[in-house]
């Protein structure tokens, strides 16, 4: 598992941990968001300059308690951003959506990867889009929905239960024509997880190596870091870097972050120590 093939046929090298910059084109994301096309494009330029390997473009917040938005609103938020980025950069772009129509139009506009927090469960047509376009798809674990996921989630053994979920969703994906080589897995930190669940998933991330697929993890400025440190979202960079370094040491291939430059440094050092 040294690389993965993007929707446009290019190979994405996975030999070192990659940094995925988050561009939230929403008014209500929990941390950093962009309220205009110009803001989103400026953020993309800055992240590229700081060394981002991938940019993840989203037009619907998935923070705890958030509500879904209409497809036309989501499209209006993300498609112009993707099209504009494609005028100056060929950086791999991920579309963060659970709607098949948004994914299809984003791929046509220049996106290369589908990042689906519902692991193909949110829209029955999503698997067909991913299979037809032969593109990488991120399957994330979530317990419930963004509206309900933090309403007293419970696990007997979170690592085992997330593993079982991955087995089921990978089987579904392959039955719908998605090549196993196109699957990326995300344990879903903060998506229907208690503090201890998040910590266990980071600590034992290497357990998911058995699937032989790239592991993506999103830790940036998450609430569990605030619960541990007493800091609000704007002040959680240091905790996020610590978590990212630990995740890389435990086998993460892709780190999704709001803070590309500092995270790039942290994961580079963590990976060097891991491989020494």
Can you put this structure into words, describing what you see?
- By secondary structure, the chain is α/β, with parallel strands linked by helices.
- The chain has one domain: Alpha-Beta Barrel (TIM Barrel), CATH 3.20.20.20.
- The protein contains 9 helices and 10 strands.
- The protein has helices at residues 37-49, 71-85, 100-109, 126-133, 158-175, 195-203, 223-229, 237-249, 260-275, and strands at residues 3-5, 11-13, 18-24, 54-58, 93-96, 113-116, 137-140, 183-186, 215-218, 254-257.
- The strands form 2 sheets. The protein has an 8-stranded parallel beta barrel with strand order 3-4-5-6-7-8-9-10, surrounded by 6 helices. A two-stranded antiparallel sheet has the order 1-2.
- Helix 4 (126-133) links the parallel strand 6 and strand 7 (137-140).
- Helix 1 (37-49) crosses helix 2 (71-85).
- The model has no long low-confidence stretch (mean pLDDT 92).
Compute the number of structural domains. Answer: 1
Poorly predicted regions? none
Strand segment count: 10
Overall SS class: alpha/beta
* CATH class type: Alpha Beta
Q: Give the C-alpha Rg.
A: 17 Å
Portion in helices: 25-40%
* H-E order: EEEHEHEHEHEHEHEHHEH
Q: What's the CATH H-level homologous superfamily?
A: Dihydropteroate synthase-like
Mean pLDDT: 92
CATH architecture: Alpha-Beta Barrel
Strand order of the largest sheet: 3-4-5-6-7-8-9-10
Q: How many H/I helices?
A: 9
What would the principal axes of the Cα set say about the shape? globular
